[in-house]
Amino acid sequence: MGTPHTKERILDAAEEIMWNRGFHAVGLNEILKAVGVPKGSFYHYFKSKEEFGVELLKHYMAAASTHKRLLLSPEIPDEAPLQRLVELMENSIDRFEKNNKRYPCLVLKLASEVTDLSDSMRQVLEDGLGRWMDLLSGVFEEAKRIGQIPDSVDPMFEAGLYRDLWAGSIQRATICKSTQPMRDAYRALSERFTALQQISTPAASAQ
Fold first, then answer.
1. Are residues 29 and 64 in the same domain?
2. What residues make up the domain containing 32?
C-alpha cells in the first residue's frame, strides 16, 4: 500500500466521522479503527491532531473547490451564468432533504468550532472561502460581460450577499430541521437575480 493511499484513506474516513460528530468529539482511535491502520501510521503522516485538522480541511476544501468550479465555471460558457447559482441552490436543498435535514458540508460543521482552536485551521478555511468567493464573483463578472446584468453591479458584493444569505439559511435550516429557511433564501436570491437582469443597460440594449 503506497503512502499517499494510506493518508487519503485516513482523511476520507475522518471527513465522514467529523461531519457527523465534530472535531473535538472525535478521538484518534475512532478514526484509526474506521480505516484499519495502526496508531503509528497516523503519526507517520501527522505530527499532531492540529496538523491533522489542517490537512483534513485542505483535503476537503480542495475537493469542494473542484466541485464548485465544475458547476460555476464550465469549460463551455452558456448564456445564463446566474442560472448556475440557482441550480446550485436547488441541488443544495435536494442534498439537505436526502440527508435527513442535515447539510453535508464540513466547513459549515467545523467553522465555529476550530477557528478559535487553531489559527492554522482558521487560515485554511479563510483561504478556501476566498477561492469560493472568487468563483461566485466570477459568475457575476461573466453575467456583466454578456450584458445579462448592469455594468454597475459589484461582483464581489453580490457574491458575498449570495454566500452569506445562503450559508445563513443552511445554518437555520439545520437548527430547525426544516427546508423552509433555504427555500426562503432561494426565493429572495432568485428574485434579486431577476431584478438585476431586468435593469436596462447599454450592453443589453445594443443586442
1. no
2. 1-45
